[in-house]
């Protein structure tokens, strides 16, 4: 393992332009459980009931308290999360003279909060809202979860039976009058084009790709390491259970631990 860490540190050091591709494993040590694990969100809240706008509406009409607990659980998780040593080390690469582009499957804002300036959100952004009618975007929503926590408390304090309208009141309104929703990719929705184009463009300029905490096995995530491999961009994989079949420098560790060790080897 020491050899592999050394090899990865050397590769990072000599790479002017570094692209990172991060997934759920990146934020796990920040307290955001992976969605699909044993205790993951989608195991406790069936996607058929909570994973699409239509199914959420139907569940809210039938059992609004279940949707409230789904929302409340998410609000608490994302409010509590703070960047971990891995997020900080990635942001630090840019301060040490590297050009750093982060491509992430995560919808949280931990890379940004750690100080990374270039972050492309491949599955959308929990802190950006999109109008369901005119498509207008509101991206200054960083206080949204704090406000939502208060709204949830107020609804609970009312002591009346919860109804779907209470839940609808949680959503911000667009200037056109329609409701806005978090700009994240739900089940069956297409992926946003711009960040994926940016991801491919970043790989063309990359001297090294670091895949962190994502299995990257399933299309379309799998296309990024594949593309790097085809362009002969060296790959480092950081995953407790590595999965990449392309010849990568493999570090079988969780993200925060691996980056702490790499940063120290790089003298950062
Ligand atoms: Zn609108």
What does this molecule look like?
This protein is of the alpha/beta class and 268 residues long. The chain has 2 domains: 1-32 and 83-123 and 191-268, Rossmann fold (3-Layer(aba) Sandwich); 33-80 and 129-184, 2-Layer Sandwich (SIR2/SIRT2 'Small Domain'), CATH 3.30.1600. 45% of the residues lie in helices and 16% in strands. The protein has helices at 2-14, 24-28, 41-44, 47-50, 53-62, 64-80, 85-95, 110-114, 144-157, 164-168, 193-205, 223-230, 255-265; strands at residues 17-22, 99-104, 119-121, 124-131, 137-138, 180-184, 208-212, 235-238, 249-251. The strands form 2 sheets. The chain has a 6-stranded parallel β-sheet, sandwiched between helices. A 3-stranded antiparallel β-sheet has the order 5-4-6, with no helix packed on it. Strand 2, helix 8 (110-114) and strand 3 (119-121) form a beta-alpha-beta unit. Helix 6 (64-80) runs antiparallel to helix 9 (144-157) and helix 7 packs parallel to helix 13 (255-265). The longest helix has 17 residues, at 64-80. It is elongated, with a radius of gyration of 20 Å. The protein starts with a helix and ends with a helix. The mean pLDDT is 94. Residues 131, 133-134, 136, 174, 176, 178 line the site of zinc ion (ZN).
């Amino acid at each position: 393992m020491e050899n592999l860490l050394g090899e990865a540190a050397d590769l990072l050091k000599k790479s002017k332009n570094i692209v990172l591709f991060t997934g759920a494993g990146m934020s796990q040590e920040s307290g955001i459980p992976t969605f699909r694990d044993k205790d993951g969100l989608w195991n406790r809240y069936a996607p058929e009931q909570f994973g699409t706008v239509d199914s959420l509406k139907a569940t809210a009409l039938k059992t609004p308290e279940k949707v409230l607990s789904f929302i409340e659980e998410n609000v608490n998780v994302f409010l509590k999360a703070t960047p971990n040593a891995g997020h900080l080390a990635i942001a630090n690469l840019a301060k040490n003279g590297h050009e750093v582009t982060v491509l992430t499957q995560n919808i949280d804002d931990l890379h940004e909060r750690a100080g990374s300036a270039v972050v492309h959100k491949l599955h959308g952004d929990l802190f950006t809202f999109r109008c369901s009618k005119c498509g207008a975007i509101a991206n200054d929503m960083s206080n949204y979860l704090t406000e939502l926590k208060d709204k949830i408390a107020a609804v609970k304090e009312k002591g009346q039976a919860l109804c779907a309208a209470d839940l609808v009141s949680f959503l911000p309104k667009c200037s056109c009058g329609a409701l806005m929703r978090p700009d994240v990719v739900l089940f069956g929705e297409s992926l946003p084009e711009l960040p994926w184009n940016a991801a491919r463009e970043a790989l063309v300029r990359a001297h090294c790709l670091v895949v962190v905490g994502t299995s990257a096995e399933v299309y379309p995530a799998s296309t990024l390491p594949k593309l790097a491999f085809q362009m002969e961009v060296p790959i480092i994989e950081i995953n407790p259970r590595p999965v990449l079949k392309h010849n990568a420098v493999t570090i079988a560790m969780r993200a925060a631990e691996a980056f702490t060790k790499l940063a120290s080897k790089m003298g950062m």
